């Protein structure tokens, strides 16, 4: 997996939208997570 340098978070009422990118701007992941999933994701 490529190294993620940037994480963008869009906060909403029920879901968090995450965007991870390399330092060059290449997209590594895009996820929609519930509050519980977001908490677990950020711990890892």
Describe the structure.
It is a single chain. This protein has 44 residues and is an alpha+beta fold. The protein has one domain. It contains one helix and three strands, in the order βββα. It has one helix at 35-43; strands at 6-11, 15-21, 27-34. It has a three-stranded antiparallel beta sheet. Strand 2 (15-21) and strand 3 form a beta hairpin. The longest helix is centred in the last third of the chain and has 9 residues, at 35-43. It is globular.
Tally of DSSP helical segments:
1
Helical residue percent band? 10-25%
**Contiguous runs where pLDDT drops below 50 for at least 5 residues:** none
- What value does the average pLDDT take? 91
Structure at a glance:
The protein is an alpha+beta fold and 44 residues long.
Q: How do the strands and helices of this protein lay out in sequence?
A:
Layout: E1 6-11, E2 15-21, E3 27-34, H1 35-43
Antiparallel strand pairs: 1-2, 2-3
List keywords for this structure.
44 residues; alpha+beta; globular; 1 helix; 3-stranded antiparallel β-sheet
């Amino acid at each position: 997996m490529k190294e993620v340098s940037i994480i963008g978070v869009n906060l909403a009422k029920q879901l968090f939208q995450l965007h991870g990118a390399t330092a060059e701007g290449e997209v590594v992941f895009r996820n929609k997570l519930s509050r519980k999933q977001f908490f677990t994701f950020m711990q890892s």
